[in-house]
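Readers of this paper often ask what the protein records in our data store actually look like. An entry from our holdings is shown next, in its original layout:
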Amino acid sequence: MKAFHENRTYHSTFPFTVIMSNDIDFLAHWHNDLEIVYVFEGSIRMGINSETRILKAGDMAICSSGDIHYYDSKDSSSKIMMVIFNPSLIGFPGGWPLNVRLTSPFMEKRAIREEEVRINNRLSQILQELMDEYNQKLEYHEQVIIGLLHEWSGLILRHVPLDKINPQKDKRRITNMKIMQGVLEYLDVNYMHPITLVDAARQANMSLFYFSRFFKSLSGMSYIAYLSNIRVNQAEQLLLTTDKSILDIALECGFTNIRTFNRVFKQIKQRTPSELR
């Protein structure tokens, strides 16, 4: 799976899936598909674009098309549901939503007014129904899923605060998003090479100081930490699926020596490469 741009693959030609996950950690990435997150238990730190929240039970997050988002469960435990689908299912082949954007991608369960409580309960209920339809796969379940997705998206657009997109005012934000998407792609393709912070800043056409702050605000971690995570995740896959030596894997994944590889791997995965294998 690409760390920067996830081209989702589904188990069927119907572009919809529901994933239950415990204590998920996932690097900053983006995709055209919509991703709805609902927290069942515990809490999880999540970042969407430059906004970060600690989500708790009953909270929801919405990743619109192209949003850069990540999950961080290092200091918490959680059980979450992710509903992921291609926006073409609700008539938006180019991405959802059009001409507007959510004022905030996070919906925390702190509704006060009776109407807010009713809407939040229905949105949660729809997610549960989507999971049931996906798991049971009864006759015509795809049509039912599409209908539920239309209702969910309609309720969101009707009741959640929206900002109308102004091409001139949003130009800088859109440009920055495209720059970050390009940087993440650059790192994913070149992680095995000795790419420095200076190299990445040059790729983004930014000063070193500004790029460092810019990168952390969108990815939730420093440039060095993000690159180390890409390398370690790739090394983990090779350790589990190949017979290559640990030294060869370390060098193949961009580490210059085995000592650094062992130290960084244990720091991220809480065990050494040898213990994993």
In short: The two ends are 21 Å apart (CA to CA). The longest helix spans residues 114-136. The longest strand covers residues 34-48. Confidence is low (pLDDT under 50) at residues 1-5.
